[in-house]
Each structure stands twice: as structure tokens, then as C-alpha cells.
Design goal:
CATH class of the largest domain: Alpha Beta
Largest sheet: 6 strands, antiparallel
Pfam family, one: PAS_3
CATH architecture of the largest domain: 2-Layer Sandwich
Distance between the termini: 113 Å
Number of domains: 7
Strand content: 25-35%
InterPro entries: HATPase_C_sf (IPR036890), HATPase_dom (IPR003594), His_kinase_dom (IPR005467), HisK_dim/P_dom (IPR003661), HisK_dim/P_sf (IPR036097), PAC (IPR001610), PAS (IPR000014), PAS-assoc_C (IPR000700)
Keywords: Coiled coil, Kinase, Phosphoprotein, Transferase
CATH topology of the largest domain: Heat Shock Protein 90
Oligomer: single chain
Mean pLDDT: 80
Domain PAS: 151-221, 285-341
Helix content: 40-55%
Radius of gyration: 49 Å
EC number: 2.7.13.3
């Protein structure tokens, strides 16, 4: 008996230990996932919970009164929680009750979101014994949920009120959702655009590229694209939009929709166009200014006042003995000035006066290299370095006036010394004047100086008066000096008033904008062409006239000859077309009659049937020859070829056309990545079709045919000496068509590109001998060239050079 009792006790002890182990494992598992256990005892009005619950709630007690617990519940959650705890739904349904609520921790006063799940345990009498369950801190989950709602709300507001257009399309490019900014951009209401295909509002010229970019997205070749395109508004006007598009995929990676951001760039493009015009005008003005400074033999300087450095032009550096690479500072400049104190004082006085203050001074300076002293005259102004900059510069020009000063000093001495010296000086001036007059009169350009005559009441220009005129101008007019000087232009040439030339002169006199144009004058008995240039200085005009009659007549003759050449070429093409048509007609009759003879009189022809068959084959060869000649004659040079042609697409279509021949030859084609070129797609297709046809035709029957088409970029400087493209450019695309066919002897490389030239008999390989001549003409027409390399029995490589870029 004793032994049996011990066995039962041991078994009970083992069960208790197992129960404790399970409790510990359960507690560890719940702690690992952040879940605590709680029990509410209605009879005691208390809540009990484990250590994990204490961490979850931030509560130091293991047992708390129910009322104290409720005092920490958020006011917005207390009613729902009280009802759920005092009368849990699980009491009637038997299913667990779950509720989320906020509570303030008594330890750190932080608000935490708690999710409890509990069930009522009933006594045998049916009354509730206790309500127990689990608790979990869901504060972070609620925070993320609130953040997500905020993000969604902000996205909706951004979509609706965005200043740029936003469009969402399905994978078939039908519009599913747009914002008001996009609807306003294209002039439709939002409702009018829903379910419309984007093609209905896209300019036709932009459709092909747009569809190509969309297909790239769908194929996964790119994640997004940016594209400038034109939209057709509801009122018919065009607007430019910069479209940024991306593909949205579903959870399994399949295309779901497109989202596009559209920015109105119409005004930006117009502004860029205007900016280019202004920059062009500015560049021309700066160039004229540089030319004027160079002609006037001026030096320029720019003193950075803040950094005390100075930038000098090359001429100014040469005056002072600095090398072109040196950048002297102000101190180095002062070291070569004889009147340093005077210049330094004048410089700093000007700087202290601020913006728009001017400097005007003469000074002697020493050349550091030669030791020679010369006199200079400098003029400058204080300016801002840029509109936004707060620093200043002193910028100006300087001129070597040594000769002028020496001349003035010598002249003064001569005046003081004797009258004879003055007379000699006057004679020298007169001589220089005569020399200047001689130079002017010897010029091949007619030059005339006019004074402007204005209406005294309105100030409008009404005429021009001759003041000076050179001999070439007199010869051009056929008049004497007395007929011109002192007279007005309308007095001498009254018919000019009704010409556009006169309006140009008036505009020059009124605005001062320099004038340059060509004119054909046929009034007052003249028939001359001349180039006119004009400038205004104050109330004076200088007009120069260069007689280009002979040059213009030559040009007109050349234009007439060119026109005749074009007409002759057109007539030749027309002749080729008509001739080919007229030649095809009798050939068709020969073939037709031959077919009738074969079909209806075959039993009577005897050996004549063979002759008729040979006649039919000859007629067929002649028909092919006529067609090839017509194709060859139609390929003419076209300098206006500007279309981008993807060669990948051209080769793909050629392969489709030659599919049957490729299969019959059991050819293995390797097509590498090819570029796009400027050209005529139909001509380029003819070029590569002829090259591939040749490779398929001239194959070795016993060997598997391999054809490889590849491309690479070649600089002009790296072109072989024998390669002479018809248009020069920096780089060329080299497209190679390589095969392992029968090949040919390279000594015939020039011959194979000539019309009717064949290296094999007609019985071996069919053809007219025109195919490669067509290839050569297409390459030349596109500014390129074709050549070939080969070895008998090993194959050939045809190399096509086409210009790269615009």
C-alpha cells in the first residue's frame, strides 16, 4: 500500500512540474511576440495581469481597481471600453471580444494604443466568474496607419491641386484619371477626357516616338522616360508639354497602369527661342566691339577692387612688358608707372566715388622687358561686376598716345621756333590728306558721305545730301563732283524715291542700325548690281558701294545652267521611265505569245519548243534588266535627306522580304546592334536588300552560309586613304555585311560596283549586274561610300560608310 501512495504522489508531482514547464514556455512565447495576459474579476472589481502586461501598459502594479484603470482611458474610448468590459459580447456569443483603445501610462504619462482580446468564463450557475484574455501594444501600428492615411490624403490633395498636369492611364493608354491642371492645359473638362485614348489629344508627328517609349516601358527596357511633345487642345491650338512617365506594376510584377507628370513648357520653348536670337545678336555686337578695339589699337583693363587684381588685354600687357600668361596685381602695375603717385591718387579717388565714377588720366609707363617709356591715355568707369554682385570693378580702355604727344610737342616747338617749320608741318598734313584721298580714290569700293536732312517740324528724315565722294563712286554714277556735292540724293536720282533702296536708306538714317545688302539698280538708265554697306555717325551717313555686276551676271549664268542641268536630269529620268515602260510592253507580248505557242502548239513544235523556252528565259532576263535600270535611274542625289532611319528596323524588314530565300539557303544570320542614320528609308532598304541578296546568291553549296551585319563608329581621320565619302563629317558609321560565300578576286573590287559588270557567267548565277551599282549610288546619295574586301573561296565583306550625326 505504501508503495502505491508514493507512486501516485510522484505522478502528481511530475504533472505539476510539467504544468509549470508549459506555463513557462507559454509565458516565454507570449513575451517574445509582445503579448500579455490579464484577468478581470467582476466580484472584486479588480484587474490582474502578468509582467508582460505591466510592460505593455507601463503600469507598476500587478493588480489594480477597475475604476483606477478606467481613469487612465482616453475620453473618446472610455464608453466603448466600459461597455465591452462590463457586458462583453462574448458572454452571449461565446466568441472572443476584441477592442482597441488608448490609455495613459502612470509611469511616463505617454498615450499607448492597446488591443485586448478576451472571453468570459462562466460559473456552473451561469453567472460570470471572470473575464480574461490577452493584451498587445499596437501604438506603432496605429501610428503607421495614421501616417498612411495622412500620406493618402496629402497625395489626393497634391494630385487635385498640383500646378502641373497629372494623368493616369491603363496599359492600353486610355485615360483613367486626370487632375484639373492637365484638363486646363489641353482645354477639356476632366469628364470629357476619361476613357479617351491619349492619341486623340497628341500631335500626329509625335505619336510614333511616344508609342515607341511606351513599348520600351512595357518591355521593361527602361523604368521611365521624359519626352517633349505637342498636345492638340480642344480649340485646335498646340501646346508643348514635358511628359515624365513611369510604369506602375502590380504585386506580381505585371504592368498595371502608367502615371505621367505633364509640365507646360510652351512659354519656356518660346523664351529659349527668343534667348537664342538675343545671344546671336549679342555675339555679333561683341564681335564688332572687338574688331573696333583692335582697329583702334586700344588696350583694355579690368581692376577687381575687392581683390586688388587687374586683368589686361594682350596689347596692354605687351605695352608694359608682361607675358600673355602673367596676371599682374595692382602693386606690380604701379611699379612700372613713372607718375605712380598721380595714378595711384586718381585711381583711389575714382574708387571712393562709387558706381559710375569715371577715370581719365595720362601717364608714362616703363616696359619691363625693353626699358622703353611711353605715354598712355586711360579712361574707365566704376561698375558692378554683375547685376547680382556687390563687388565693383574699374573697367576701361587705354591708348598709346606717345606718337600723338610727341607730334604735338614737336608742333609746338616748331610754332615757337619759326614759321617755316609750321608751313612744313602744314605741307606734311596736306600730303597725308592727299595720300588719304589717293587711297580712297584708288579703292575699288565706291564711298560717299552724306549729311541727313530732316523735316524741321517732325524731325523725320526726308533726304540725304552729298558731302564727299570718291572716284569709284563718280565712275559708278557717271557724273561729275559738281553734279553731286551739295546736292541731295532725290535731286540727282529722283526715281529712287519709289524703290525699296530708298526706304533702307531712310531706316538707316532714322535708326542708326548698320546696313548691308545687295541691290539691282535699273532706274535712271542704269543696270548694275552692287553690294551696299552703310553706317550712321551723328547726322552723317557713310555708304559704300561695291560693283558686283560682273560677279552677279556670272552667278545668274551659273543658276541658269544649273536649272538647265536639273531640267535635263528630269527629262533623262522621264525618258528612262518611259523607255522602260515602252520596252516592257513588247516583252510582255513576246512572253505571252511564247506561252501560247508552248501551250497550244507544243505537239507540233518539235525542237522549236526548246528555242521558245530559251526565248522566254531571255525575255525574262531582259524584263529584270529593265526594272533594275529603272531603279538605278530613280536613285538621285537628295541634299534634303534629314529623316532619322533606324537601321535595325530596315534590316528587320529586309529579312522579312527575303525570308523564303534565307530558308532555302539555310542561312545563319547574326545581326548586331545598328545605329540610326539620316536618310531615305526606302533607298537604305534597297541597299541592304541587294547586299543580303548577293550573300544568299553567291554562297558555297557544301558549306553552311553565315552572314554577319555589324556596325561601329569611325572618325574621319581614321578612314582608309581609298575611302572618299561624298560628304565630309567628323564621324562615320561603318556597317559591315560579312559572309563566308564564294568570294572574289580583290583586283576586281572597283569593277563590281559598275553597271552591267559581272564576275560570273549567267548560267552560274542569275542577275543583271546592276545590284551593286544601285548599292554604290545609294551610299553616295547619303553622303557615304561603299567598298569591299574578299578572298576567293573564303567569303566577302562589304563596308558601307554613312555620315554620323546631323
Amino acid at each position: 500500500m505504501t508503495g502505491n501512495y508514493k507512486s501516485a504522489d510522484e505522478e502528481l508531482l511530475a504533472l505539476r512540474e510539467e504544468l509549470q514547464r508549459v506555463k513557462q514556455q507559454t509565458s516565454s512565447a507570449l513575451e517574445a511576440v509582445g503579448i500579455g495576459l490579464w484577468t478581470m474579476i467582476p466580484q472584486q472589481n479588480r484587474i490582474l495581469w502578468d509582467e508582460q502586461c505591466q510592460k505593455i501598459y507601463g503600469w507598476p502594479k500587478k493588480s489594480i481597481p477597475f475604476d483606477e484603470f478606467l481613469s487612465r482611458i482616453h475620453p473618446q474610448d472610455i464608453d466603448n471600453l466600459r461597455a465591452a468590459l462590463t457586458n462583453p459580447p462574448s458572454q452571449q456569443t461565446g466568441k472572443p471580444t476584441t477592442i482597441d483603445y488608448r490609455i495613459t501610462s502612470p509611469i511616463d504619462d505617454t498615450i499607448r494604443w492597446i488591443r485586448i482580446t478576451g472571453r468570459v468564463t462562466k460559473q456552473s450557475s451561469g453567472a460570470a466568474d471572470y473575464f480574461s484574455g490577452t493584451a498587445q501594444n499596437i501604438t506603432e501600428e496605429k501610428r503607421k496607419e495614421a501616417t498612411l492615411k495622412t500620406v493618402e490624403k496629402r497625395f489626393q490633395m497634391a494630385f487635385t491641386h498640383a500646378s502641373v498636369g497629372v494623368v493616369i492611364l491603363d496599359t492600353q493608354s486610355n485615360i483613367q484619371l486626370i487632375n484639373k491642371a492637365f484638363a486646363d492645359l489641353v482645354g477639356y473638362s476632366q469628364e470629357e477626357l476619361i476613357d479617351k485614348h491619349f492619341e486623340s489629344i497628341t500631335h500626329p508627328d509625335d505619336m510614333e516616338e511616344n508609342v515607341f517609349l511606351i513599348q520600351q516601358l512595357l518591355r521593361g527596357e527602361t523604368n521611365s522616360y521624359v519626352f517633349n511633345k505637342r498636345y492638340v487642345r480642344k480649340d485646335g491650338r498646340l501646346v508643348w508639354g514635358q511628359v515624365s512617365s513611369a510604369l506602375i506594376r502590380d504585386g506580381e510584377g505585371r504592368p498595371d497602369s502608367f502615371i505621367s507628370i505633364v509640365q507646360d513648357i510652351t512659354a519656356e520653348l518660346q523664351a529659349q527661342s527668343e534667348q537664342k536670337k538675343l545671344l546671336s545678336l549679342l555675339g555679333a555686337s561683341e564681335e564688332r566691339l572687338r574688331e573696333a578695339i583692335e582697329l583702334a589699337e586700344l588696350g583694355t583693363f579690368d581692376v577687381n577692387i575687392a581683390e586688388e587684381t587687374i586683368q589686361l588685354s594682350e596689347r596692354a600687357k605687351g605695352w608694359l612688358g608682361f607675358t600673355p600668361d602673367e596676371i599682374p596685381d595692382v602693386a606690380q602695375l604701379f611699379n612700372v608707372i613713372r607718375d605712380r603717385d598721380v595714378l595711384e591718387t586718381a585711381l583711389y579717388e575714382t574708387i571712393n566715388k562709387g558706381v559710375d565714377a569715371t577715370l581719365d588720366i595720362e601717364y608714362w609707363a616703363l616696359n619691363r622687358q625693353t626699358g622703353q617709356e611711353r605715354l598712355y591715355h586711360a579712361q574707365g568707369r566704376i561698375i558692378k561686376r554683375s547685376p547680382e554682385d556687390t563687388t565693383f570693378s574699374l573697367r576701361g580702355i587705354a591708348k598709346d598716345i606717345t606718337a600723338q604727344k610727341q607730334y604735338a610737342q614737336a608742333l609746338e616747338q616748331q610754332v615757337q621756333w619759326r614759321t617755316q617749320a609750321l608751313q612744313q608741318a602744314n605741307s606734311l598734313v596736306e600730303l597725308q590728306t592727299d595720300q588719304l584721298r589717293f587711297v580712297t580714290d584708288s579703292a575699288l569700293t565706291a564711298i560717299a558721305l552724306y549729311s541727313i536732312i530732316r523735316n524741321e517740324a517732325t524731325g523725320d528724315v526726308i533726304d540725304l545730301r552729298y558731302e564727299l565722294i570718291n572716284q569709284m563712286a563718280l565712275r559708278m554714277t557717271g557724273l561729275q563732283v559738281t553734279d553731286l556735292i551739295g546736292h541731295t540724293m532725290l535731286e540727282v536720282f529722283p526715281a529712287i524715291k519709289n524703290s525699296s533702296v530708298w526706304r533702307r536708306y531712310l531706316e538707316l538714317a532714322q535708326t542708326g542700325v548698320p546696313l548691308r545688302y545687295h541691290n539691282h539698280y535699273t532706274q535712271d538708265g542704269y543696270d548694275i548690281w552692287y553690294q551696299v554697306q552703310g553706317v550712321r555717325q551723328g547726322e552723317l551717313l557713310v555708304l559704300s558701294f561695291l560693283d558686283i555686276t560682273e560677279l552677279k551676271q556670272t552667278q545668274l549664268k551659273l543658276e541658269a545652267l544649273n536649272k538647265n542641268l536639273i531640267e535635263a536630269n528630269d527629262n533623262l529620268q522621264q525618258f528612262a521611265f518611259v523607255a522602260s515602260h515602252d520596252l516592257q510592253e513588247p516583252l510582255r507580248k513576246i512572253q505571252s505569245f511564247g506561252t501560247l505557242l508552248q501551250e497550244q502548239y507544243a505537239d507540233r513544235l518539235g525542237e522549236g519548243a526548246t528555242l521558245i523556252q530559251r526565248m522566254q528565259l531571255a525575255a525574262e532576263r531582259m524584263s529584270i534588266l529593265i526594272k533594275d535600270l529603272l531603279t538605278f535611274s530613280r536613285i538621285t542625289a537628295n541634299s534634303q535627306i534629314t529623316t532619322d532611319v533606324p537601321l535595325d528596323r530596315v534590316i528587320e524588314r529586309v529579312i522579312d522580304d527575303l525570308d523564303v530565300a534565307i530558308q532555302e539557303a539555310n542561312a545563319n544570320l547574326q545581326i548586331k546592334s545598328l545605329p540610326s542614320v539620316k536618310g531615305d528609308e526606302s533607298q537604305l532598304r534597297q541597299l541592304f536588300q541587294n547586299l543580303l541578296s548577293n550573300a544568299l546568291k553567291f554562297r558555297q553549296p557544301k558549306n553552311e552560309l553565315h552572314i554577319c551585319i555589324s556596325a561601329r563608329l569611325v572618325a574621319e581621320s581614321d578612314l582608309p586613304a581609298s575611302v572618299k565619302p561624298t560628304r565630309q563629317t567628323a564621324n562615320y558609321h561603318l556597317i559591315c555585311v560579312e559572309d563566308n560565300g564564294i568570294g572574289f578576286d580583290e583586283k576586281y573590287v572597283d569593277r563590281i560596283f559598275q553597271v552591267f559588270q559581272r564576275l560570273h557567267g549567267k548560267s552560274q548565277y542569275a542577275g543583271t549586274g546592276i545590284g551593286l551599282a544601285i548599292v554604290q549610288r545609294v551610299a553616295a546619295n547619303h553622303g557615304g561610300v561603299i567598298t569591299a574586301t574578299s578572298r576567293l573561296g573564303e567569303g566577302s565583306t562589304f563596308q558601307v560608310y554613312l555620315p554620323a550625326g546631323s
